[in-house]
Amino acid sequence: MKPKLQLSLIAIFLILAGCTKPKVSNNPGSVKKLHDLLDKSDYFKLDVQFKMLTDSIDDGNRLYFKAYLDNAFNRNEECIKDIDSVLVNKSIKLPDSTKTALKQLQGDSYFKTYQYLKAAQCDSSILKLYKKSLHKDVIDDVNNNLLIRNALKDIPAQQTVIKNNTTIPWKKDMIGLIEIPFTTHNQSFDGIFDTRANISSITQTYAKKLGLHILDVSYNEGSGATGIQFKTGMGIADSLYIGNVLVKNVVFQVMPDSILYIAQVKFQLNVIIGFPVIEQMQEVHIFSNGKMTIPVTPAKSDLHNFALDGLDPVIALKAGNDTLSFHFDSGASSSNLYAAYFAKYKADVIKKGFKKTVGFGGAGGSQRKEVYILAKLDLALGGKNVSIDSVSVLQQPITPGEKFYGNIGQDFTSKFSEIIYNFKDMYIKGQ
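Now predict its structure.
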């Protein structure tokens, strides 16, 4: 689902625009510094630097970086307006790769606000205007997104109704994943609570049990844990209840049962409640005693440590003297560190770790990879330090262009008596 962004330096093209250009940046070095952070998807440091440097860059660049920050921090309507302002300004001369990246970003914001038709129109526009100048991988991504969004274009937007504070129980299944109860059409089911599932997922068997409306579409999807690609379809649940919370027009990826079967432990996943449903709850509290609450009114916080890379949640954590960005995955029982961590701390990992071949499982299958095992990893969330044990460090990227330092799972969040996910003000808090 996540598009591969092709980034270019706008400043160069503003300068080439001649007498029609807007005010040229007073400090081209500021623009380069911001691009360097954006290229790394380091949204937290980019946000800090943008606020410091905003007066030293021109209006075109200011809107450009603001669009990425608004998208990353879940201000999607603002992102859509930012990009419209850039693209309609004829005085700003941009290469096709940059226009494509902006239209992909805008399509992502339309999708995250359930405006599927407008998201599809972004993809169609890219293919109509810029296809000849794009790399095949980008074209493949856009075509795949267009399949999904065209299939959904006549589906009403997802809506979540929270009339009062809601409390539900949660439990761990046999492989350590959090399951929550939900009901639909007077039937009760359990689903995996998975922040990193870009779209909620379901087996074909359970799609029939839930009475989903199956759409005529087949597209490519991949597992974040292994990078394995597979084909999947799509279905719509007209409504479901999570406690007293009503969610309407829920989109599910409909997969062959075998895709969600974990062969190593002979365990069948059936239903995964993913990011779009969780995000519309706005705030979720998970208590270690098996209770989950969804408040009517989200609470504000000074923390600003939560972002979105496309549909993937990202968390900023302190690791020693560094602040690093990690994928945040409530659907993973354990954390692991990516190749970027290995590259940054290679000498320390080799000195303190030991090599081992381990299995990584996810939707679509499993893989065995040689990793380094660190006996202990110290991380801090909001000033609270915790340690997790036996953390795998991958030596090679799972997917091309991988930029984050790892994937944080339940072995980290279980160290807190309460963990709060807030999608309105974008923070994660543990206590």
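The chain has three domains: 10-152, 159-291, 306-430.
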